[in-house]
Protein backbone atom coordinates (compact mmCIF):
# COMPACT_ATOMS: atom_id res chain seq x y z
CA UNK A 1 0.00 0.00 0.00
CA UNK A 2 1.29 3.44 -0.95
CA UNK A 3 1.47 6.20 1.68
CA UNK A 4 2.60 9.81 1.98
CA UNK A 5 3.87 11.64 5.05
CA UNK A 6 3.14 15.32 5.51
CA UNK A 7 4.56 17.71 8.08
CA UNK A 8 7.83 17.79 9.98
CA UNK A 9 6.88 18.40 13.59
CA UNK A 10 5.94 15.70 16.12
CA UNK A 11 2.28 14.95 16.78
CA UNK A 12 1.26 17.04 19.81
CA UNK A 13 -2.47 16.21 19.82
CA UNK A 14 -3.68 14.72 23.10
CA UNK A 15 -7.00 13.79 24.73
CA UNK A 16 -8.27 15.26 28.02
CA UNK A 17 -10.43 13.56 30.62
CA UNK A 18 -13.64 14.50 28.79
CA UNK A 19 -12.54 13.02 25.47
CA UNK A 20 -11.76 16.39 23.89
CA UNK A 21 -8.67 16.75 21.73
CA UNK A 22 -6.14 19.54 22.35
CA UNK A 23 -2.65 20.60 21.29
CA UNK A 24 -0.02 20.30 24.00
CA UNK A 25 1.69 23.70 23.82
CA UNK A 26 3.06 26.48 26.00
CA UNK A 27 0.56 28.80 24.37
CA UNK A 28 -3.02 28.48 25.65
CA UNK A 29 -5.66 27.51 23.10
CA UNK A 30 -8.00 30.29 21.99
CA UNK A 31 -10.66 28.55 19.90
CA UNK A 32 -12.87 25.48 20.38
CA UNK A 33 -14.11 23.72 17.26
CA UNK A 34 -16.84 21.13 17.65
CA UNK A 35 -17.00 18.53 14.87
CA UNK A 36 -20.00 16.33 15.48
CA UNK A 37 -19.74 15.40 19.17
CA UNK A 38 -15.95 15.84 19.36
CA UNK A 39 -14.33 19.05 20.65
CA UNK A 40 -10.95 20.35 19.51
CA UNK A 41 -9.13 22.99 21.61
CA UNK A 42 -6.87 24.73 19.11
CA UNK A 43 -5.12 27.98 18.15
CA UNK A 44 -6.58 30.45 15.68
CA UNK A 45 -3.43 31.48 13.83
CA UNK A 46 -2.30 28.13 12.32
CA UNK A 47 -5.87 27.36 11.26
CA UNK A 48 -6.36 30.75 9.61
CA UNK A 49 -3.05 30.42 7.76
CA UNK A 50 -4.27 27.39 5.81
CA UNK A 51 -8.10 27.44 5.71
CA UNK A 52 -10.24 30.01 3.97
CA UNK A 53 -13.41 28.59 5.54
CA UNK A 54 -11.99 28.73 9.08
CA UNK A 55 -10.89 32.32 8.48
CA UNK A 56 -14.53 33.25 7.91
CA UNK A 57 -15.87 31.18 10.81
CA UNK A 58 -13.30 32.56 13.26
CA UNK A 59 -14.03 36.11 12.13
CA UNK A 60 -17.73 35.53 12.69
CA UNK A 61 -17.05 34.01 16.13
CA UNK A 62 -14.98 37.05 17.07
CA UNK A 63 -17.86 39.33 16.08
CA UNK A 64 -20.26 37.30 18.20
CA UNK A 65 -17.72 37.25 21.04
CA UNK A 66 -17.66 33.48 21.29
CA UNK A 67 -14.70 31.12 21.30
CA UNK A 68 -16.59 28.08 19.97
CA UNK A 69 -17.35 27.06 16.40
CA UNK A 70 -19.73 24.23 15.52
CA UNK A 71 -19.42 22.25 12.24
CA UNK A 72 -22.14 19.55 12.38
CA UNK A 73 -21.98 18.58 8.70
CA UNK A 74 -18.22 18.24 8.38
CA UNK A 75 -17.37 15.56 5.76
CA UNK A 76 -15.85 12.35 7.16
CA UNK A 77 -16.16 13.54 10.75
CA UNK A 78 -13.62 14.26 13.52
CA UNK A 79 -10.83 12.04 12.15
CA UNK A 80 -10.72 13.88 8.84
CA UNK A 81 -10.79 17.24 10.62
CA UNK A 82 -7.86 16.22 12.80
CA UNK A 83 -5.78 15.41 9.71
CA UNK A 84 -6.47 18.91 8.41
CA UNK A 85 -5.72 20.49 11.78
CA UNK A 86 -2.39 18.67 12.08
CA UNK A 87 -1.48 19.84 8.59
CA UNK A 88 -2.16 23.41 9.71
CA UNK A 89 0.28 22.89 12.61
CA UNK A 90 2.83 21.21 10.26
CA UNK A 91 2.61 18.09 12.42
CA UNK A 92 3.36 14.69 10.94
CA UNK A 93 0.37 13.01 9.35
CA UNK A 94 0.32 9.89 7.14
CA UNK A 95 -2.02 9.61 4.17
CA UNK A 96 -2.94 6.27 2.59
CA UNK A 97 -5.76 4.60 0.66
CA UNK A 98 -7.93 4.43 3.79
CA UNK A 99 -7.92 8.15 4.62
CA UNK A 100 -6.97 9.98 1.43
CA UNK A 101 -10.57 10.47 0.27
CA UNK A 102 -11.63 11.77 3.69
CA UNK A 103 -8.66 14.15 3.80
CA UNK A 104 -9.33 15.40 0.27
CA UNK A 105 -13.01 16.09 0.93
CA UNK A 106 -12.24 17.73 4.29
CA UNK A 107 -9.59 19.95 2.70
CA UNK A 108 -12.07 21.02 0.03
CA UNK A 109 -14.70 21.79 2.67
CA UNK A 110 -12.22 23.93 4.65
CA UNK A 111 -11.00 25.74 1.53
CA UNK A 112 -7.36 24.68 1.96
CA UNK A 113 -6.39 25.78 -1.54
CA UNK A 114 -3.39 27.42 -3.21
CA UNK A 115 -5.14 30.81 -2.97
CA UNK A 116 -4.67 30.67 0.79
CA UNK A 117 -1.17 29.18 0.96
CA UNK A 118 1.25 27.56 -1.46
CA UNK A 119 1.53 23.78 -1.16
CA UNK A 120 -1.79 23.54 0.64
CA UNK A 121 -3.64 20.35 1.49
CA UNK A 122 -5.97 20.24 -1.53
CA UNK A 123 -3.00 20.27 -3.90
CA UNK A 124 -1.02 17.68 -1.92
CA UNK A 125 -3.93 15.25 -1.54
CA UNK A 126 -4.77 15.57 -5.24
CA UNK A 127 -1.17 14.85 -6.21
CA UNK A 128 -0.96 11.77 -4.00
CA UNK A 129 -4.37 10.50 -5.10
CA UNK A 130 -3.63 10.84 -8.82
CA UNK A 131 -0.02 9.67 -8.85
CA UNK A 132 -0.22 6.83 -6.31
CA UNK A 133 -3.71 5.71 -5.30
CA UNK A 134 -5.23 5.58 -8.78
CA UNK A 135 -2.18 3.71 -10.07
CA UNK A 136 -2.63 0.93 -7.55
CA UNK A 137 -5.16 -1.89 -8.04
CA UNK A 138 -6.01 -2.59 -4.41
CA UNK A 139 -5.49 1.02 -3.32
CA UNK A 140 -8.12 2.14 -5.84
CA UNK A 141 -10.59 -0.41 -4.47
CA UNK A 142 -9.94 0.60 -0.86
CA UNK A 143 -10.32 4.28 -1.71
CA UNK A 144 -13.56 3.60 -3.58
CA UNK A 145 -14.99 1.78 -0.56
CA UNK A 146 -14.37 4.85 1.63
CA UNK A 147 -16.25 7.19 -0.71
CA UNK A 148 -19.67 5.91 0.32
CA UNK A 149 -19.57 7.40 3.82
CA UNK A 150 -18.47 10.79 2.44
CA UNK A 151 -21.20 11.32 -0.13
CA UNK A 152 -22.07 13.66 -1.77
CA UNK A 153 -18.64 15.32 -1.36
CA UNK A 154 -16.71 12.38 -2.86
CA UNK A 155 -19.08 12.30 -5.83
CA UNK A 156 -19.03 16.06 -6.40
CA UNK A 157 -15.22 16.00 -6.51
CA UNK A 158 -15.42 13.15 -9.07
CA UNK A 159 -13.42 10.89 -6.76
CA UNK A 160 -15.96 8.07 -7.14
CA UNK A 161 -15.83 8.26 -10.92
CA UNK A 162 -12.02 8.37 -11.03
CA UNK A 163 -11.74 5.32 -8.77
CA UNK A 164 -14.24 3.38 -10.88
CA UNK A 165 -12.46 4.29 -14.12
CA UNK A 166 -9.11 3.21 -12.68
CA UNK A 167 -10.48 -0.14 -11.47
CA UNK A 168 -12.35 -0.86 -14.70
CA UNK A 169 -9.30 0.00 -16.82
CA UNK A 170 -7.02 -2.31 -14.86
CA UNK A 171 -9.58 -5.13 -14.84
CA UNK A 172 -9.78 -4.86 -18.63
CA UNK A 173 -6.02 -5.14 -19.16
CA UNK A 174 -4.74 -8.19 -21.02
CA UNK A 175 -3.88 -10.76 -18.31
CA UNK A 176 -0.40 -11.04 -19.83
CA UNK A 177 0.22 -7.43 -18.78
CA UNK A 178 -0.96 -7.78 -15.17
CA UNK A 179 2.06 -7.06 -12.96
CA UNK A 180 0.39 -6.05 -9.69
CA UNK A 181 -0.78 -8.22 -6.81
CA UNK A 182 -4.35 -9.50 -6.60
CA UNK A 183 -6.42 -11.97 -4.59
CA UNK A 184 -7.11 -15.33 -6.23
CA UNK A 185 -8.09 -18.24 -4.00
CA UNK A 186 -9.89 -20.30 -6.63
CA UNK A 187 -8.03 -23.50 -7.49
CA UNK A 188 -7.73 -25.03 -10.92
CA UNK A 189 -10.36 -27.70 -11.54
CA UNK A 190 -9.57 -31.21 -12.67
CA UNK A 191 -10.45 -30.21 -16.21
CA UNK A 192 -8.03 -27.28 -16.12
CA UNK A 193 -5.13 -29.30 -14.74
CA UNK A 194 -3.56 -31.24 -17.59
CA UNK A 195 -0.18 -32.86 -18.01
CA UNK A 196 1.41 -29.56 -19.06
CA UNK A 197 -0.01 -27.51 -16.18
CA UNK A 198 2.94 -28.02 -13.82
CA UNK A 199 5.44 -27.11 -16.53
CA UNK A 200 3.48 -23.99 -17.44
CA UNK A 201 3.44 -22.90 -13.80
CA UNK A 202 7.19 -23.34 -13.60
CA UNK A 203 8.00 -21.46 -16.79
CA UNK A 204 5.66 -18.51 -16.41
CA UNK A 205 3.32 -16.75 -14.05
CA UNK A 206 -0.09 -17.55 -15.49
CA UNK A 207 -2.71 -14.88 -14.82
CA UNK A 208 -6.31 -16.12 -15.27
CA UNK A 209 -8.89 -13.99 -17.05
CA UNK A 210 -10.96 -13.67 -13.88
CA UNK A 211 -8.02 -12.54 -11.70
CA UNK A 212 -9.94 -9.38 -10.70
CA UNK A 213 -13.17 -11.00 -9.53
CA UNK A 214 -12.37 -11.72 -5.87
CA UNK A 215 -10.98 -8.30 -4.99
CA UNK A 216 -14.19 -6.62 -6.16
CA UNK A 217 -16.27 -8.74 -3.77
CA UNK A 218 -15.38 -6.21 -1.05
CA UNK A 219 -17.52 -3.52 -2.67
CA UNK A 220 -21.13 -2.92 -1.69
CA UNK A 221 -23.67 -3.46 -4.42
CA UNK A 222 -24.13 0.15 -5.55
CA UNK A 223 -20.40 0.62 -6.14
CA UNK A 224 -19.97 -2.90 -7.50
CA UNK A 225 -22.69 -2.30 -10.07
CA UNK A 226 -20.99 0.88 -11.29
CA UNK A 227 -17.65 -0.92 -11.64
CA UNK A 228 -19.14 -3.83 -13.62
CA UNK A 229 -20.99 -1.44 -15.93
CA UNK A 230 -17.72 0.43 -16.50
CA UNK A 231 -15.94 -2.84 -17.32
CA UNK A 232 -18.72 -3.78 -19.75
CA UNK A 233 -18.52 -0.39 -21.46
CA UNK A 234 -14.86 -0.95 -22.34
CA UNK A 235 -15.90 -4.07 -24.33
CA UNK A 236 -12.63 -5.88 -23.66
CA UNK A 237 -13.81 -8.37 -21.05
CA UNK A 238 -15.29 -11.73 -22.22
CA UNK A 239 -18.99 -11.67 -21.36
CA UNK A 240 -18.74 -15.12 -19.78
CA UNK A 241 -16.16 -13.86 -17.27
CA UNK A 242 -18.49 -11.02 -16.30
CA UNK A 243 -21.28 -13.55 -15.76
CA UNK A 244 -19.09 -15.62 -13.45
CA UNK A 245 -18.03 -12.46 -11.59
CA UNK A 246 -21.65 -11.49 -10.92
CA UNK A 247 -22.40 -15.03 -9.76
CA UNK A 248 -19.43 -14.95 -7.37
CA UNK A 249 -20.69 -11.65 -5.95
CA UNK A 250 -24.19 -13.05 -5.43
CA UNK A 251 -22.84 -16.11 -3.63
CA UNK A 252 -20.72 -13.87 -1.42
CA UNK A 253 -23.42 -11.34 -0.48
CA UNK A 254 -26.76 -13.15 -0.54
CA UNK A 255 -27.79 -14.59 2.86
CA UNK A 256 -27.50 -18.32 3.42
CA UNK A 257 -31.17 -18.68 4.33
CA UNK A 258 -34.46 -16.90 3.81
CA UNK A 259 -34.96 -16.71 7.59
CA UNK A 260 -32.28 -14.03 7.86
CA UNK A 261 -34.56 -11.66 5.90
CA UNK A 262 -37.26 -11.55 8.56
CA UNK A 263 -36.97 -7.80 9.14
CA UNK A 264 -38.20 -5.28 6.59
CA UNK A 265 -34.76 -3.66 6.49
CA UNK A 266 -33.00 -6.92 5.60
CA UNK A 267 -35.68 -7.73 3.03
CA UNK A 268 -35.21 -4.32 1.41
CA UNK A 269 -31.43 -4.75 1.24
CA UNK A 270 -31.82 -8.19 -0.29
CA UNK A 271 -34.36 -6.89 -2.82
CA UNK A 272 -31.96 -4.16 -3.93
CA UNK A 273 -29.17 -6.73 -4.13
CA UNK A 274 -31.16 -9.21 -6.22
CA UNK A 275 -32.42 -6.52 -8.58
CA UNK A 276 -28.89 -5.24 -9.15
CA UNK A 277 -27.46 -8.72 -9.70
CA UNK A 278 -30.12 -9.62 -12.26
CA UNK A 279 -29.56 -6.33 -14.09
CA UNK A 280 -25.83 -7.14 -14.33
CA UNK A 281 -26.26 -10.64 -15.75
CA UNK A 282 -25.10 -10.83 -19.37
CA UNK A 283 -28.02 -10.30 -21.74
CA UNK A 284 -26.50 -12.76 -24.21
CA UNK A 285 -28.66 -15.85 -23.66
CA UNK A 286 -25.89 -18.09 -24.94
CA UNK A 287 -23.71 -17.28 -21.91
CA UNK A 288 -23.74 -20.16 -19.48
CA UNK A 289 -25.41 -19.03 -16.25
CA UNK A 290 -26.54 -22.19 -14.49
CA UNK A 291 -30.23 -22.78 -13.92
CA UNK A 292 -29.46 -23.65 -10.30
CA UNK A 293 -28.04 -20.17 -9.72
CA UNK A 294 -30.92 -18.48 -11.55
CA UNK A 295 -33.47 -20.45 -9.53
CA UNK A 296 -31.73 -19.39 -6.33
CA UNK A 297 -32.12 -15.77 -7.42
CA UNK A 298 -35.79 -16.42 -8.21
CA UNK A 299 -36.36 -17.86 -4.74
CA UNK A 300 -34.91 -14.71 -3.19
CA UNK A 301 -36.96 -12.55 -5.56
CA UNK A 302 -40.17 -14.27 -4.44
CA UNK A 303 -39.17 -14.10 -0.78
CA UNK A 304 -38.48 -10.34 -0.79
CA UNK A 305 -41.45 -9.56 -3.06
CA UNK A 306 -39.39 -8.24 -5.95
CA UNK A 307 -41.12 -6.70 -8.94
CA UNK A 308 -43.05 -8.83 -11.42
CA UNK A 309 -40.74 -7.61 -14.19
CA UNK A 310 -37.71 -8.98 -12.34
CA UNK A 311 -39.35 -12.35 -11.77
CA UNK A 312 -40.45 -12.53 -15.41
CA UNK A 313 -36.86 -11.91 -16.51
CA UNK A 314 -35.59 -14.72 -14.29
CA UNK A 315 -38.35 -17.07 -15.46
CA UNK A 316 -37.37 -16.41 -19.07
CA UNK A 317 -33.70 -17.13 -18.37
CA UNK A 318 -34.49 -20.29 -16.40
CA UNK A 319 -36.75 -21.65 -19.14
CA UNK A 320 -33.75 -21.62 -21.48
CA UNK A 321 -31.86 -24.01 -19.21
CA UNK A 322 -34.64 -25.97 -17.54
CA UNK A 323 -33.07 -29.24 -18.65
CA UNK A 324 -30.11 -28.48 -16.34
CA UNK A 325 -32.18 -27.95 -13.19
CA UNK A 326 -32.93 -30.37 -10.36
CA UNK A 327 -36.22 -30.98 -8.57
CA UNK A 328 -34.76 -29.41 -5.43
CA UNK A 329 -33.89 -26.26 -7.40
CA UNK A 330 -37.54 -25.94 -8.46
CA UNK A 331 -38.88 -25.98 -4.89
CA UNK A 332 -39.59 -22.26 -4.73
CA UNK A 333 -41.20 -21.30 -1.39
CA UNK A 334 -44.60 -19.72 -1.90
CA UNK A 335 -44.95 -16.05 -1.06
CA UNK A 336 -48.04 -16.94 0.98
CA UNK A 337 -47.36 -20.28 2.75
CA UNK A 338 -50.93 -20.30 4.06
CA UNK A 339 -52.08 -21.19 0.55
CA UNK A 340 -49.36 -23.62 -0.58
CA UNK A 341 -45.86 -24.58 0.48
CA UNK A 342 -44.38 -24.00 -2.96
CA UNK A 343 -44.99 -21.61 -5.83
CA UNK A 344 -46.16 -24.17 -8.39
CA UNK A 345 -47.52 -21.44 -10.64
CA UNK A 346 -44.03 -20.04 -11.30
CA UNK A 347 -42.72 -23.50 -12.17
CA UNK A 348 -45.71 -24.01 -14.47
CA UNK A 349 -44.80 -20.78 -16.28
CA UNK A 350 -41.17 -21.89 -16.62
CA UNK A 351 -42.21 -25.25 -18.07
CA UNK A 352 -44.69 -23.64 -20.46
CA UNK A 353 -41.99 -21.31 -21.80
CA UNK A 354 -39.54 -24.18 -22.17
CA UNK A 355 -42.09 -26.27 -24.08
CA UNK A 356 -43.04 -23.36 -26.34
CA UNK A 357 -39.43 -22.49 -27.13
CA UNK A 358 -38.28 -26.09 -27.61
CA UNK A 359 -41.24 -26.91 -29.83
CA UNK A 360 -40.49 -23.83 -31.94
CA UNK A 361 -36.85 -24.92 -32.34
CA UNK A 362 -37.88 -28.41 -33.41
CA UNK A 363 -40.37 -27.00 -35.90
CA UNK A 364 -37.67 -24.74 -37.39
CA UNK A 365 -35.69 -27.74 -38.66
CA UNK A 366 -32.72 -27.08 -36.38
CA UNK A 367 -29.21 -27.95 -37.51
CA UNK A 368 -25.91 -27.35 -35.71
CA UNK A 369 -24.67 -25.56 -38.81
CA UNK A 370 -27.59 -23.15 -38.91
CA UNK A 371 -26.86 -19.51 -38.13
CA UNK A 372 -29.30 -18.91 -35.30
CA UNK A 373 -29.35 -16.94 -32.11
CA UNK A 374 -27.32 -18.32 -29.17
CA UNK A 375 -30.35 -19.47 -27.20
CA UNK A 376 -31.21 -22.00 -29.93
CA UNK A 377 -28.06 -23.91 -29.14
CA UNK A 378 -28.97 -24.38 -25.47
CA UNK A 379 -31.48 -27.07 -26.41
CA UNK A 380 -29.64 -30.34 -26.80
CA UNK A 381 -30.80 -33.79 -27.88
CA UNK A 382 -32.44 -35.59 -24.98
CA UNK A 383 -33.67 -32.39 -23.34
CA UNK A 384 -37.28 -33.60 -23.55
CA UNK A 385 -36.49 -36.79 -21.63
CA UNK A 386 -34.45 -34.91 -19.03
CA UNK A 387 -37.24 -32.41 -18.44
CA UNK A 388 -39.79 -35.23 -18.30
CA UNK A 389 -37.88 -36.91 -15.48
CA UNK A 390 -37.37 -33.55 -13.78
CA UNK A 391 -41.08 -32.71 -13.77
CA UNK A 392 -42.05 -36.12 -12.41
CA UNK A 393 -39.49 -35.81 -9.60
CA UNK A 394 -40.81 -32.34 -8.86
CA UNK A 395 -44.39 -33.64 -8.81
CA UNK A 396 -43.35 -36.25 -6.25
CA UNK A 397 -41.92 -33.48 -4.04
CA UNK A 398 -44.89 -31.10 -4.19
CA UNK A 399 -47.40 -33.96 -3.88
CA UNK A 400 -46.58 -34.01 -0.16
CA UNK A 401 -48.15 -30.57 0.20
CA UNK A 402 -51.66 -31.17 1.51
CA UNK A 403 -52.65 -27.67 0.35
CA UNK A 404 -51.69 -28.37 -3.27
CA UNK A 405 -54.80 -28.23 -5.49
CA UNK A 406 -55.48 -31.28 -7.62
CA UNK A 407 -55.88 -29.05 -10.66
CA UNK A 408 -52.35 -27.63 -10.27
CA UNK A 409 -50.87 -31.12 -10.04
CA UNK A 410 -52.75 -32.32 -13.13
CA UNK A 411 -51.95 -29.22 -15.20
CA UNK A 412 -48.24 -29.51 -14.53
CA UNK A 413 -48.20 -33.24 -15.22
CA UNK A 414 -49.90 -32.64 -18.58
CA UNK A 415 -47.70 -29.70 -19.59
CA UNK A 416 -44.98 -31.81 -21.21
CA UNK A 417 -45.53 -33.87 -24.39
CA UNK A 418 -46.04 -37.62 -24.18
CA UNK A 419 -42.68 -38.24 -25.84
CA UNK A 420 -40.96 -36.70 -22.81
CA UNK A 421 -42.35 -39.44 -20.57
CA UNK A 422 -41.74 -42.87 -22.21
CA UNK A 423 -41.91 -44.55 -18.79
CA UNK A 424 -44.56 -43.64 -16.21
CA UNK A 425 -42.91 -45.04 -13.08
CA UNK A 426 -41.96 -41.63 -11.65
CA UNK A 427 -45.37 -40.17 -12.50
CA UNK A 428 -47.04 -43.14 -10.80
CA UNK A 429 -44.89 -42.57 -7.71
CA UNK A 430 -45.87 -38.89 -7.61
CA UNK A 431 -49.57 -39.74 -7.96
CA UNK A 432 -49.31 -42.35 -5.23
CA UNK A 433 -47.78 -39.75 -2.89
CA UNK A 434 -50.54 -37.28 -3.80
CA UNK A 435 -53.26 -39.84 -3.05
CA UNK A 436 -51.61 -40.71 0.26
CA UNK A 437 -51.38 -37.06 1.34
CA UNK A 438 -54.91 -36.23 0.14
CA UNK A 439 -57.06 -39.04 1.60
CA UNK A 440 -60.23 -36.94 1.37
CA UNK A 441 -60.40 -37.21 -2.44
CA UNK A 442 -63.60 -38.84 -3.63
CA UNK A 443 -63.80 -41.57 -6.27
CA UNK A 444 -64.25 -39.18 -9.18
CA UNK A 445 -61.30 -37.05 -8.11
CA UNK A 446 -59.04 -40.08 -7.71
CA UNK A 447 -60.06 -41.31 -11.16
CA UNK A 448 -59.27 -37.91 -12.65
CA UNK A 449 -55.75 -37.79 -11.30
CA UNK A 450 -55.04 -41.46 -12.02
CA UNK A 451 -56.11 -40.95 -15.62
CA UNK A 452 -52.68 -39.38 -16.06
CA UNK A 453 -51.08 -42.83 -15.81
CA UNK A 454 -50.61 -44.93 -18.91
CA UNK A 455 -50.49 -48.42 -17.42
CA UNK A 456 -48.77 -49.71 -20.55
CA UNK A 457 -45.77 -47.53 -19.67
CA UNK A 458 -45.27 -48.92 -16.18
CA UNK A 459 -42.29 -51.17 -15.55
CA UNK A 460 -42.81 -54.66 -14.11
CA UNK A 461 -41.83 -53.46 -10.66
CA UNK A 462 -44.14 -50.44 -10.77
CA UNK A 463 -47.07 -52.44 -12.14
CA UNK A 464 -46.58 -55.03 -9.41
CA UNK A 465 -46.80 -52.29 -6.79
CA UNK A 466 -49.80 -50.68 -8.50
CA UNK A 467 -51.70 -53.98 -8.67
CA UNK A 468 -51.68 -54.10 -4.87
CA UNK A 469 -52.14 -50.38 -4.24
CA UNK A 470 -55.43 -49.83 -2.39
CA UNK A 471 -55.24 -46.08 -2.99
CA UNK A 472 -55.78 -46.50 -6.73
CA UNK A 473 -59.29 -46.64 -8.20
CA UNK A 474 -60.46 -50.18 -8.93
CA UNK A 475 -60.61 -49.46 -12.65
CA UNK A 476 -56.90 -48.59 -12.73
CA UNK A 477 -55.97 -51.70 -10.78
CA UNK A 478 -57.91 -53.83 -13.27
CA UNK A 479 -56.02 -52.24 -16.15
CA UNK A 480 -52.68 -52.78 -14.43
CA UNK A 481 -53.39 -56.45 -13.76
CA UNK A 482 -54.67 -56.95 -17.29
CA UNK A 483 -51.51 -55.60 -18.85
CA UNK A 484 -49.29 -57.47 -16.43
CA UNK A 485 -51.01 -60.62 -17.58
CA UNK A 486 -50.71 -59.59 -21.23
CA UNK A 487 -47.02 -58.83 -20.84
CA UNK A 488 -46.39 -62.16 -19.15
CA UNK A 489 -48.29 -64.01 -21.85
CA UNK A 490 -46.35 -62.30 -24.66
CA UNK A 491 -43.00 -62.77 -22.95
CA UNK A 492 -42.42 -59.04 -22.38
CA UNK A 493 -40.21 -58.65 -19.32
CA UNK A 494 -37.74 -55.86 -20.03
CA UNK A 495 -39.76 -52.69 -20.01
CA UNK A 496 -43.09 -51.01 -20.49
CA UNK A 497 -43.28 -51.71 -24.25
CA UNK A 498 -46.11 -54.08 -25.25
CA UNK A 499 -47.52 -55.59 -28.44
CA UNK A 500 -48.80 -53.30 -31.23
CA UNK A 501 -52.38 -54.28 -30.39
CA UNK A 502 -52.12 -52.50 -27.06
CA UNK A 503 -54.72 -49.89 -27.96
CA UNK A 504 -57.26 -52.63 -28.64
CA UNK A 505 -56.33 -54.32 -25.40
CA UNK A 506 -56.73 -51.04 -23.54
CA UNK A 507 -60.25 -50.69 -24.90
CA UNK A 508 -61.11 -54.20 -23.77
CA UNK A 509 -59.70 -53.52 -20.33
CA UNK A 510 -61.68 -50.33 -20.01
CA UNK A 511 -64.83 -52.11 -21.16
CA UNK A 512 -64.34 -54.81 -18.54
CA UNK A 513 -63.83 -52.12 -15.92
CA UNK A 514 -67.04 -50.30 -16.72
CA UNK A 515 -69.32 -52.71 -14.86
CA UNK A 516 -70.49 -52.51 -11.31
CA UNK A 517 -68.11 -52.60 -8.38
CA UNK A 518 -69.13 -56.19 -7.64
CA UNK A 519 -68.39 -57.30 -11.18
CA UNK A 520 -65.06 -55.48 -11.07
CA UNK A 521 -64.11 -57.30 -7.88
CA UNK A 522 -64.87 -60.68 -9.37
CA UNK A 523 -62.91 -59.86 -12.50
CA UNK A 524 -60.00 -58.59 -10.44
CA UNK A 525 -59.85 -61.78 -8.37
CA UNK A 526 -59.85 -63.91 -11.51
CA UNK A 527 -57.20 -61.79 -13.26
CA UNK A 528 -54.92 -61.80 -10.23
CA UNK A 529 -55.33 -65.57 -9.82
CA UNK A 530 -54.45 -66.11 -13.48
CA UNK A 531 -51.49 -63.77 -13.20
CA UNK A 532 -50.15 -65.64 -10.19
CA UNK A 533 -50.43 -68.96 -12.05
CA UNK A 534 -48.59 -67.56 -15.03
CA UNK A 535 -45.86 -66.03 -12.88
CA UNK A 536 -45.54 -69.27 -10.95
CA UNK A 537 -45.08 -71.14 -14.22
CA UNK A 538 -42.38 -68.68 -15.32
CA UNK A 539 -40.50 -69.10 -12.04
CA UNK A 540 -40.36 -72.84 -12.63
TrEMBL record:
Domain BTB: 29-97
Residue ranges, annotated region (Disordered): 491-518
Keyword Nucleus part of the UniProt annotation: no
Entry-linked Pfam families: BTB, NPH3
Pathway stated in the Swiss-Prot or TrEMBL entry: Protein modification; protein ubiquitination
Listed Basic and acidic residues bias regions: 508-518
Family annotation (SUPFAM superfamilies): POZ domain
Every NPH3 domain range: 210-487
Keywords carried by this UniProt record: Ubl conjugation pathway
Record family assignment: Belongs to the NPH3 family.
Name of this chain's protein: Uncharacterized protein
